[in-house]
Automatic annotation (TrEMBL):
Enzyme class: lyase
Keyword Chloroplast listed: no
GO cellular component terms, semicolon-separated: peroxisome
Record's protein name: 2-hydroxyacyl-CoA lyase
Reactions it catalyzes: 2-hydroxyoctadecanoyl-CoA = heptadecanal + formyl-CoA; a 2-hydroxy-3-methyl fatty acyl-CoA = a 2-methyl-branched fatty aldehyde + formyl-CoA; an (R)-2-hydroxy-long-chain-fatty acyl-CoA = a long-chain fatty aldehyde + formyl-CoA
EC number from the UniProt entry: 4.1.2.63
Classification via InterPro entries: DHS-like_NAD/FAD-binding_dom (IPR029035), HACL1-like (IPR045025), THDP-binding (IPR029061), Thiamin_PyroP_enz_cen_dom (IPR012000), Thiamin_PyroP_enz_TPP-bd_dom (IPR012001), TPP_enzyme_TPP-bd (IPR011766)
UniProt cofactor(s): thiamine diphosphate
Family named by the database record: Belongs to the TPP enzyme family.
Gene Ontology BP annotations: fatty acid alpha-oxidation
Regions that span the bilayer: 506-526
Species annotation: Panagrellus redivivus
Single GO molecular function: thiamine pyrophosphate binding
Length: 665
């Protein structure tokens, strides 16, 4: 394999590994030889068929039979049209070099601008990973396919173009289902490339044979399986385009094992046009925009809500910030929309969220969905008479759970821009009773929170622990990954975002286990594109358990990530070390189902992989650990700060339960 023979990075491979690859190559050559013999026999058959057809043409003079004879001679015994060259080769010129399927996959991805692959390799896709590196695509080897899928989609969201998850056939592909579903619900672009057993062994009980194409199809926008080497480029092109355009999401290309190592002359590989990275945008008709403008002007209690669709829009953050400044409208963001307009903007009413949602009479919903996160847009969390103006690129989101009074189909940012022009000269009164009510409510809620932040008694409560983290986040440009139950819910309010796409969490799907995978992508992103940005992954002790082995991945690749584990010994809450010791009998019967090991040493786990660990209990210790961890990040690598808090610490009292269980249909 040319990429093995000519790339110095593969020299350290073990002798046993090289022997295994050599055996695979010998087996492939033997199979190819057998196929060639069969093909030669088929050619003789075609010649005989052609001769018979020519006789028929001479005796009957039928033109249509002549065309049939041409088709016969162009086909092989398995029914595939003979390979077509890109263009005629000049007389006397040498044949082009041969390429294998792995190289065709890699070159096709590279042609579309793919820069990152996250995966777990094995038979039959080892060579694809090698070929990708030889083509200049960065490969990150993860410890679990699900984490690799989370990393790929997060990188797609951060960079604005699909990254790839690469995995083996059968169970390897199936392990990605949680990640694919998460990407589909979040509308984040990624491409899954999975192996499959050799096509000629289908239905015979081949190694890891499984109907993965059918299994994956419900979880992706597009799924395909090229049958020939020549078909690979077009399948990759469509997977890339479909993942990126329209409502973004995951796609899947399945590569049968025999295609990975089969070879073809390069001139027979079709050239496929590349997909422009700039996504098409549109705006709604002027008449509809005017209706929206008039409805906003009539509102007594207007509110703007934006979600991650606003962050995904190419110019969304810039144009929405201009819209808010020009109109003076109060706003709040969903977790994915945080930072589209800075959280510290004077018109942000996030601290008065419940009041804003319940009392608003007109809501401009920009790139957000009326799902469980916004309580379906229904009473009692929303007004009975609420009127909603909705901006979305997907018309299927309109009238979901609550009627859209005005539906604006188009790019969030560009539509906000034309709506701002339609409102030119109008601004919501800054001294209105509505803004006064929201400001007073927000100040009251902040005061309640700050009392808990100021309580430094040990063991710490959530808010006191977050107080030290908040100070660090507000003083630096930080890309935050946040995962857990209370850890994430409290983190959404305690870690402000002032820039778009600076927060990744469990999102719309509420997926636990995403955190460390997201952190891998974030670490690579800031390393390559935003060197002054810091990556902080704040996990609950339950959440980090889903993918803690990826700490080794982060350390292996020397990614600039600091992890913080908010450790209360359980899911929501746990037991104190003293209560833990008092548990008698069978733990399967007597340990509370929410309990985890109290004060588990996750910091030691990080140290075992070669990173640095900190075990802290106080606010001052948290501050010191953050400073030291980031000061030594370049030389010491990733670090983990294990923060012990009270096992019974909770969120502040909420006016409504976070999850809407009963709603008006």
């Amino acid at each position: 394999m040319w990429y093995l023979a000519n790339s110095e990075q593969f020299l350290p491979l073990s002798l046993a590994y090289l022997q295994r690859l050599l055996c695979l190559r010998i087996e492939t050559i033997m199979l190819s030889t057998m196929r060639a013999v069969r093909a030669a026999s088929s050619i003789q058959k075609c010649i005989r068929l052609s001769s018979t057809a020519s006789t028929l043409i001479r005796t009957r003079g039928a033109v249509h039979l002549q065309a049939k004879a041409v088709q016969i001679t162009q086909r092989r015994d398995h029914g595939v049209i003979a390979r077509q060259k890109r263009k005629p080769r000049p007389p006397g010129s040498e044949a082009m070099s041969e390429v294998d399927g792995a190289s065709i996959v890699a070159s096709s991805l590279k042609a579309h601008g793919v820069e990152y692959i996250f995966g777990v390799v094995g038979i039959p896709i080892i060579e694809i990973g090698m070929a990708a590196q030889a083509h200049g695509i960065k490969y990150v080897g993860c410890r679990n396919e699900q984490a690799a899928a989370y990393a790929a989609q997060a990188m797609g969201y951060l960079t604005g173009k699909p990254a790839v998850c690469l995995c083996v056939s059968g169970p390897g592909v199936l392990h990605t289902v949680g990640g694919l579903a998460n990407a589909k619900v979040n509308n984040w672009p990624m491409i899954l490339i999975g192996g499959a057993s050799d096509a000629d062994q289908d239905g015979r009980g081949a190694f890891q044979e499984y109907p993965t194409l059918d299994s994956i199809r419900p979880h992706v926008k597009y799924a395909s399986r090229p049958a020939t080497l020549e078909a690979i480029p077009s399948h990759i092109e469509k997977a890339y385009r479909t993942a990126l355009y329209g409502k973004a999401g995951p796609t899947y290309v399945e590569i049968p094992g025999q295609l990975v190592t089969e070879t073809i002359e390069e001139e027979y590989v079709p050239l496929v046009s590349t997909v422009p990275s700039a996504r098409p945008v549109s705006v709604p008709p002027a008449t509809i925009v005017t209706q929206a403008a008039e409805l906003l002007k009539s509102a007594k209690k207007p509110l703007v809500i934006f979600g991650k669709g606003a962050a995904w829009s190419e110019r969304g953050p810039t144009l929405l910030s201009q819209f808010i400044t020009a109109t003076g409208l109060p706003f709040l963001a969903t977790p994915g929309g945080k930072g589209v307009v800075p959280d510290d903007h004077p018109l942000s009413v996030a601290s008065a969220r419940s009041t804003a949602l319940k009392e608003a009479d007109v809501i401009l919903l920009a790139g957000a969905r009326l799902n469980w996160m916004l309580h379906f847009g229904l009473p009692p969390r929303f007004s009975e008479d609420i009127k909603i103006i909705q901006i979305d690129i997907n018309p299927e989101e309109f009238h979901q759970n609550s009627t859209s009074e005005v539906a604006l189909l188009g790019d969030v940012g560009e539509t906000a821009h034309v709506l701002r022009n339609a409102l030119s000269g109008w601004k919501f009164p800054p001294n209105s009773p509505w803004l006064t009510t929201l400001t007073e409510k927000a100040n009251k809620n902040r005061a309640t929170v700050e009392k808990m932040v100021a309580d430094h008694s040990l063991p710490l409560n959530y808010y006191a622990a977050y107080g030290a983290i908040r100070d660090f986040v507000t003083q630096n440009d930080v890309l935050v990954i946040n995962e857990g139950a209370n850890t994430m819910d409290i983190g959404r309010t305690m870690m402000p975002s002032v820039l778009p796409r600076r927060r990744l969490d469990a999102g719309t799907f509420g997926t636990m286990g995403v955190g460390v995978g997201y952190a891998l992508a974030a670490g690579l992103f800031v390393r390559d594109f935003a060197k002054k940005t810091k990556v902080l992954c704040v996990e609950g002790d339950s959440a980090i358990g889903f993918s803690a082995m990826e700490l080794e991945t982060a350390i292996r690749y020397k990614l600039p990530v600091v992890f913080v584990v908010i450790n209360n010994g359980g899911i929501y809450r746990g037991l104190t070390p003293e209560d833990w010791k008092d548990v008698e009998g069978d733990p399967c019967l007597n340990l509370p189902v929410l309990s985890l090991t109290p004060e588990a040493r996750y910091d030691k786990m990080c140290e075992a992989f070669g990173g640095r660990g900190y075990f802290v209990r106080s606010v001052d210790e948290i501050r010191a650990a953050l400073t030291d961890a980031y000061s030594n990040l370049a030389t010491g690598g990733p670090a983990l700060i294990n923060v012990i808090i009270a096992n019974d610490s909770e969120r502040k009292q909420q006016e409504h339960d976070w999850l809407t269980r009963k709603s008006k249909l």
